[in-house]
Specification:
The complex is a heterodimer of chains A (about 55) and B (about 525). Chain A is about 35% helix and about 20% strand. With about 55 residues, chain A is of the alpha+beta class. Chain A has one domain. The longest helix of chain A has 10 residues, at about 45-55. Chain A is elongated and about 55 Å long. By secondary structure, chain B is of the alpha/beta class. Chain B folds into 3 domains: about 15-100, GAD-like domain (Gyrase A, domain 2); about 185-330, Rossmann fold; about 335-515, Rossmann fold (3-Layer(aba) Sandwich). In chain B, about 40% of the residues lie in helices and about 20% in strands. Chain B has an 8-stranded mixed sheet, sandwiched between helices. In chain B, helix 16 links the parallel strand 18 and strand 19 (about 460-465). The chains are: A alpha+beta (about 55), B alpha/beta (about 525). At the A-B interface, strand 1, helix 1 and strand 2 of A face helix 1, strand 4, helix 4, strand 5 and strand 9 of B.
Chain lengths: ~55, ~525
């Protein structure tokens, strides 16, 4: 089963972000794996300006 | 708004550590804060991102220092106040070790690694800051993978793109801002322990879904799927894309025999579209679009109800005599019973509802407005219904169902004022605080006691949203509320009907509202 009908089969979850929800799924006996997401590094504006000139 | 005053009980010793550009999620940071607070010699502590809400809270806790003046929302702040400098230093070190964290086997740093370990997830749950959701979610949706976006503040154009793509690929984008998803007895996000059963729910209302599913489960039936689509789905810019798709899914689902639609106030064109679609469903359907005028009524195969309470009552009736009888016993109050409670409350000061459920605030405001009452949405108004899940209270902090800090501070502030009636909700279940009533006990006591000392009386009405299977224990939480002197109401709608009666004393109007808003639709 694919797409929305995948919800009719066994619930297998990837949890991206707050590990609280991963823990709660585990407590309910659900197969869940956790992604400890971090925001992409945002370069400071002045550093970007320097890079633009160099590159 | 949160009180701007700096608390006078400022701890004598304090220290703050700022880590520039360091992100950790707010629920994890709350857990670290709670552990640090429990350490010996610690008076107050806050470990959180440097958002306006957190900086304000640091001031309220008496922990402010000038070194925090330049902190940005992407900086991590650890600030501790204690009885001596040694205790403070020890607590700061403990916080730093907790922040290092422990890595489990089932944890990954990137989504790509996770997808290698689990290539065919049936659902990906996303709770990251809204502006980053599109770049994480879109590649998944393009592969036809279902996603539940818990995050708020996702730009509307990102939501539209994600949902249109999902519609083409035949998968779900549940949310953004969807608190709850239920899949045959399992909940993601905030969800109660409900039995699997024949009722399928499509919902643009997180706590609406929690209240309806809990009431039905406690009445002896159960839920096949509870598909939260997020409040913006019923705005005309999105046009109910996922609500209609979830209705198609439920209409085809062999385990679902009755369908429910629950939504916060929808935009008019989308409301029309949802009602037209519901008309064409093969299964009996109960539709609750908050804000619709008139009384609950049946049109063909569809029952239109005005409140979550009425939706649960009418669904129970469709399921047969036993379920209806259980519902009426556990949740319903006759007009006379509502009048009796309302008559016992004297209102000669402010009336304030401090709610963690957005739908409860929405439904409550509509009920008061049907009774001819106007209320504001923050503490600057004399009478107010406050949704503490709104962005201004949650920026950089966990949802108030997990973190009671903001509501506790508001109760303490209200203790100093002329207040007659305070309305509260307590939402139980997976994802919520482990003891929400216990966490508020001291603040509720202070509110009641301070007023009594002044010769006044505050009434506190509260309603619990939960089931007997929830980890917090429904009965235990109810008992705690009663022992505090709080009147426990069976549903949000009845809580606000009582409030409307207590404020207006207009019993004829209350009788009519009771009939229109909470009676079973035949």
């Amino acid at each position: 089963m694919s797409g929305m009908y995948a919800l009719r089969g066994e619930l297998k979850v990837i949890n991206v972000g707050s590990s609280h929800f991963h823990d709660q799924l585990r407590r309910q006996g659900v197969r869940s794996i956790q992604v400890n997401w971090r925001p992409p590094v945002e370069l400071e504006d002045d550093l970007q300006d320097i890079l633009k000139e160099v590159l | 708004m949160v009180n701007n005053e700096i608390r006078l009980t400022r701890p004598e010793f304090r220290k703050a550590i700022i880590s520039k550009n360091t992100f950790r999620d707010s629920v994890f940071l709350l857990k670290v804060t709670e552990e640090v607070r429990r350490l010996p010699g610690v008076r107050e502590a806050l470990v959180g991102m440097g958002t306006d809400t957190n900086l304000q809270l640091i001031k309220t806790l008496g922990l402010w220092g000038e070194e925090l003046a330049t902190v940005q929302s992407n900086d991590l702040v650890v600030v501790v106040g204690g009885v001596n400098q040694e205790a403070v230093e020890r607590a700061i070190s403990a916080a730093q070790s907790l922040l290092e964290g422990v890595k489990e086997e089932s944890q990954y740093s990137t989504l790509e690694q996770a997808l290698s370990a689990l290539p065919d997830p049936s659902l990906v749950v996303i709770s990251i800051p809204g502006k980053y959701v599109k770049e994480v979610a879109l590649p998944l949706v393009e592969k036809g993978i279902n996603i539940h976006i818990f995050s708020d503040n996702v730009p509307l154009e990102d939501e539209v793109l994600l949902k249109r793509t999902a519609s083409q690929k035949g998968c779900f984008v549940l949310g953004p801002g969807a608190g709850t998803v239920l899949v045959r007895g399992v909940g993601t996000g905030f969800a109660n322990k409900v039995n699997p059963g024949p009722v399928g729910i499509s919902s643009a209302s997180g706590t609406g879904l929690q209240e309806l599913s809990s009431m039905l489960s406690e009445s002896g039936t159960g839920i096949s799927y509870g598909l939260g689509v997020g409040g913006n789905d019923v705005k005309d810019q999105v046009g109910g894309i996922m609500m209609l798709q979830s209705l198609k899914f439920l209409d085809e689902d062999p385990d679902t025999t009755i369908i429910n639609v629950v939504s916060k106030v929808p935009d008019p064109s989308t409301a029309e579209k949802v009602m037209r679609y519901a008309d064409g469903l093969r299964k009996p359907t109960v539709v609750t679009l908050l804000g619709l005028q008139g009384k609950g009524e049946r049109r063909g195969n569809v029952i239109y109800s005005r409140t979550i309470h009425q939706a649960a009552a009418s669904t129970a009736r469709l399921l047969g005599r036993d379920v209806l009888s259980n519902f009426l016993k556990s949740y319903h109050l006759t007009f006379e019973a509502v009048k009796e409670i309302a008559s016992s409350i004297r209102v000669n000061g402010r009336v304030v509802a401090l709610l963690t459920g957005g739908t409860f605030a929405n439904e409550g405001t509509l009920i008061l407005s049907s009774a001819g009452l106007r209320v504001g949405q923050d503490l600057s108004s004399a009478n107010a219904v406050i949704d503490l899940g709104e962005e201004e209270y949650t920026r950089g902090r966990p949802h108030p169902m997990i973190d009671p800090t903001i509501r506790i501070n508001m109760l303490r502030d209200l203790a100093e004022e002329e207040v007659s009636l305070v309305l509260m909700d307590f939402v139980l279940g997976f994802g919520a605080h482990s003891d929400p009533v216990g966490a508020h006990a001291e603040a509720i006591n202070q509110l009641l006691y301070t007023n009594e000392k002044r010769g006044g009386k505050v009434f506190v009405l509260a309603h619990l949203c939960g089931t007997s299977g929830d980890p917090q224990g429904l009965r235990e939480q109810e008992d705690k509320l009663r022992s505090l002197g709080v009147t426990v109401m069976p549903s949000n709608a009845l809580t606000f009907l009582v409030a409307a009666g207590a404020i207006t004393g207009d019993w004829e109007r209350l009788r009519l509202l009771h009939q229109q808003l909470v009676e079973v639709v035949q």
